[in-house]
Amino acid sequence: MILLQNTRIASENSPVLVEGDVLIVDGIIQQIGPGLAVPEGARVIDARGRILMPAMFDAHVHFRAPGFENKETITTGSEAAINGGVTGVVMMPNTRPAIDSAAVVSTVLESAKRKSRIPVYTSGCVTKDREGKELAEIDGMRLLGVTMLTDDGDTTGDPAVLLRAMQYATEFGMFFASHCEVPELAGPRALNEGVMSYRLGIKGSPACAEEIIIDRDIRLARAAGAHVHIQHVSSKMGMETIKWWKSRGDVKVTAEVAPHHLLFTEEHIGDYDTNYKMNPPLRTQADCDALLEGLKEGVFDLIATDHAPHTPFEKAQDFISAPNGITGLETALVSLYHFFVRPEKFGWDLVVKRYSAEPRRLMGLPVPTIEVGQPAECLLFDTEAETTFTKEFMKSKSQNTPFINQTLQGRVDVVILGSEILLEREATVAIG
Amino acid sequence: MARKDLLDIASLQREEIELLLDQSTAFKQLLISSGKKVPVLEGKSVLMLFYEPSTRTHSSFEVAAKRLSAEVTNFNVAHSSITKGESVRETIETLQAMRTDYIVVRHSRSGLPGMIARLTKASVINAGDGAHEHPTQALLDAFTIKEKFADPRGKRVLIIGDILHSRVARSTSTLLQKLGVEVAYLGPGSLVPRFGPASIRRFTNYDEAMAWGPDFVYLLRVQMERQDVQFFPTLREYHRIYGITNTRLEDIRQRGLYIMHPGPVNRGVELCDAVMDYERSLINNQAENGIAVRMAVLDWLTPGGDLPKPEPAYATRSGAAPALVMP
Fold first, then answer.
1. Which ipTM score applies to this complex?
2. How far B88 CA lies from chain A's nearest CA (Å)?
3. pTM for this structure?
4. Cβ neighbours of residue A183 under 8 Å, at least 6 residues apart?
């Protein structure tokens, strides 16, 4: 039994926070109301001033296992998720070997069962070894629970291959997640083509490289009657392309945006700072502004971090050699609060809807809410406390994020999954 | 302010540039008046780390260092454009043991000399990194221009060629603008990006560029091999549209313009043979001035300082990025 006293409850349906106590019994929310009696043996958490909301779900993470365990493992990745208030993730399949067969899927899921305190789901490759040529054994993966197919990290280059895959897998109720970029236009470097690429003397990737594949993959999905999910959109025109297709209503398309594309621009790269190197690349302030509008208007169904850990050694190389990626699981929620909720750019309802509810709907999973009779899957967020993202604070094996050693307002204090308290930080507010 | 490294022109203050150019004048006079060495860098060591083939820049640095009485070591590295950051790091860690005072580095990867500079106490001089910067070339260009116009403010320099891939175009135009010189670019639309600096005029038509009224015509080396996807169809077509042909040379002569080129030249591409004998060609002056300028740079830098922290992991470098005060 867990009793959360004097909390303010957030939901996806309203920006208004509802005050009250919440009693969790056997992992189920049993009572909500003001001044609930303390049952005998209950674990009492004074949540005064803190916000209770459904725990987050990240539909785009790289846990690097198998094959790149020097960067991240399922253990460290899932602990990082908990540290950031996330209680469910979808792994991307660009591992070594790639997650492109029932054998690898089952290895990953078995390993996750043993090593992770939260549910870990995995996507599967569209093509064998993400090479864009032969189809992966799609139904074999489906039988183990895979619903999302993606060659994430790259675009499935040959449209005929993707169209066939869509025609085939849609019949099994699976959907496609697209990393959108014309490889010939993008080149090997994650940097926007523009002022910065010119200044730094590195070939850039123009926004049209993304726009073209967003449009292509939606058209392919329409032709195949498939559902396509557009990953980590980075450009204004990319957002507008999705908006236009959604307004037509004759194809099932969903889309995600990553916090870093809302927060940073190419200018942040400064003097070749590799913490700002990711793919798709950071673009301009106009793109950031448009992506934020897209999020508020619902063009983006969900927020996903594209949590992409790399070792210090790899990231300390020169900008061209350093790998693409930024971690996000531990910083996402706090940064969304600090930069958007606190200055009232949007409310907690948007955060809950886009980073907790919608990603679960995408995956066909039950959506936790703070309501009587619902399973407890929630977090307490302290808006008065700060978080300093030190190496010690971070649970991820890698800390390749511009937030390293930065202090932001807000803190994830408690994470509850069922009857288990996964995370409990020392309260800053005195219990009284 | 003592500087450890010379990595780019962008971060140089105007006063620093003027000081370097003044010092270059002094070193040039010294070079002309006597062929002897000066003991400025006696007991110091200079390491030449060239990951890209280079004859001119390499020998210019070597001569400059030897004239200053430094000991010069050539570190033989594979001339491979795919030498990646991690193997360079290992090399630098090895070189630390050699306790060299100066490292002159050229690499095809933009930004790589900056990475080396963070790993070593030695003064790092960027002798050209990818399409990023080539600061000593810019200094010698400015020096050469100032020999013609002691006060170059308001003079106009037209840079013609492959701007997109040119570190020379970037460094030289940045430096010239800091000295009050106006700069314009001319070349094929595919090689003169629209997203270049707003302060630089962009031309794709030769006659329009000449009508702008340049005092100097600065030609860049144009290569086909740079191109993964073609930027223009043939060298012959390039020469016809943008090259200094005999007819154009005559026009340039009548206008009294100077011609510059960082070398090595591609005859029949960016210029015709006759340009080499043109009385106002400064191409040889540039090569000569390179030694004096590089002597001034070696003399000016101060090796040493603190080694980077033992854990350089993801160091958010000071001044590298705007503070995190977004939306």
1. 0.89
2. 9
3. 0.93
4. A154, A155, A157
Whether the CB-CB separation of A7 and A45 falls below 8 Å is answered with no
Structure tokens at A24: 């969790």
% helix / strand / coil in chain B, to the nearest 5? 40, 15, 45
Delineate the domains of chain B, giving CATH numbers in brackets: 14-133+289-300 (3.40.50.1370), 136-287 (3.40.50.1370)
> Please, is A230 exposed, middle or buried when counting C-beta atoms within 10 Å of its C-beta (0-12, 13-18, 19+)?
buried
* Residues B190 and B233: beta-carbon distance below 8 Å: no
Task: Enumerate the residues of chain B whose CB falls inside 8 A of the CB of residue A340.
Answer: 327
The SS3 assignment for A108 reads helix
Q: What is the pLDDT along chain B (327 residues), one digit of tens a residue?
A: 689 999 999 999 999 999 999 999 999 999 999 878 999 999 999 999 998 888 899 999 999 999 999 999 998 776 544 456 667 777 888 777 788 999 999 999 999 999 999 889 999 999 999 999 999 999 999 999 999 999 999 999 999 999 999 999 999 999 999 999 999 999 999 999 999 999 999 999 999 999 999 999 999 999 876 557 889 999 999 999 999 999 999 999 999 999 999 999 999 999 999 999 999 999 999 999 999 999 999 999 999 865 544 433 343 433 333 445 443
- Omega before A97 within 30 of 0, i.e. cis: yes
Q: Would you call A264 an interface residue with chain B, using a CB distance cutoff of 8 Å?
A: yes
Distance from CA of A136 to the nearest CA of B (A): 31
Mind telling me how many Å the CA of A339 is from chain B's nearest CA?
A: 6
Q: What are phi and psi of A186, to 5 degrees?
A: -75, -35
Spatial separation of the C-alpha atoms in residues A174 and A168, rounded to whole Å: 9
State whether residue A403 sits within 8 Å of chain B by CB: yes
Compute the distance between CA of residue A302 and CA of residue A255 in angstroms, rounded to an integer: 7
Q: Are the Cβ atoms of A312 and B312 closer than 8 angstroms?
A: yes
Among A368, A409, A367, smallest CA distance to A388 is for A409
Cα–Cα–Cα angle for B68, B74, B77, rounded to 5 degrees? 150
The residue ranges of every structural domain in chain A are 55-362
- Token pair recorded at residue B64: 């400059």
Q: How far apart are CA B210 and CA B215, in angstroms?
A: 10
Partner-chain contact A320 B111, CB within 8 Å? yes
CATH class, range A55-362: alpha beta
The whole-angstrom separation of Cα B10 and Cα B197 is: 13
